[in-house]
User: Fold this.
Amino acid sequence: MHKFGMVALIGPPNAGKSTLMNQYLGQKIAIVSPRPQTTRNRISGILTTDDAQVVFLDTPGIHRLRGRMNRFLLESAWNAMATADMVVVMLDGALYASKPHLLEKEIAPLVKPVDQAGRPVIVAINKADRLKEKAQLLPVLERAAELWPGAEIFPISALKGKGTDALLSKIMEHVPDGPPMYPEDQISTVPLRFMASEIIREKLFYHLRQELPYSTAVEIEAWEEQPEEDRTIINAVIYTSQKNHKGMIIGKQGETLKSVGTQARKEIAELLGTRVHLELWVKVRSGWTEDPGFLRALGLGD
Assistant:
């Protein structure tokens, strides 16, 4: 028998959903950063074994922020859960162990929708390795058991891979029978252009301070493959919503933009397996986070 199924990774921002998916696939499909709300789109990662194929759906963090873009993010997460065969709820165990008051606040938007989805639920308490004493995690485990009665709960470290094998074994138990839907060497359904734009956006998160990354978007304007030169030429535009942010993104004498481009180019070249010529431009687009047409063009929402 062969299994095939889709697993929605659902949770508050910065719970480690992207890190867990990358851990299972053995390479980076979804970008990560220490800041919450890094993931904006629903990103799939395909894990293929001898007897199963599992499509992990990495989703934007569930939150209560206002604005059209944030509504699009939530729409993407809820739609992923509706199409999945099961749900893995991911929680930041280290955060809630040290700040119990945040547990109720951040989990509240999750409980009812997860219950109403009617899918099998597993709870993964992530970042357990950050706690010196395992007993510190007990209140979080107990509260998760109260919120999702009957769900199995796994303390894990997605970053270090601790406890993730046991979690995957339990996930496999819930994956329904079915033939594989994708070639065994395919690791995602997202296009390479999108992955390249996400790599650029990840570098912006690491280089820009405070709220600046949240007001930026990346769009690939041109993509030319030159097999005879073993080279791909990529032109990308970084959009920002405010004029005064443009200079910050470019940096003094262009140093910030140059550093972003250098790091992104190296990673994109590894992804494509070719040399990459990357050109970055910065443009101001006021109110882009509230422009539904532009948000759809960026692939946000479903």
About this structure: Strands lie at 3-10, 43-48, 52-58, 86-92, 121-126, 152-155, 216-226, 231-240, 275-284.
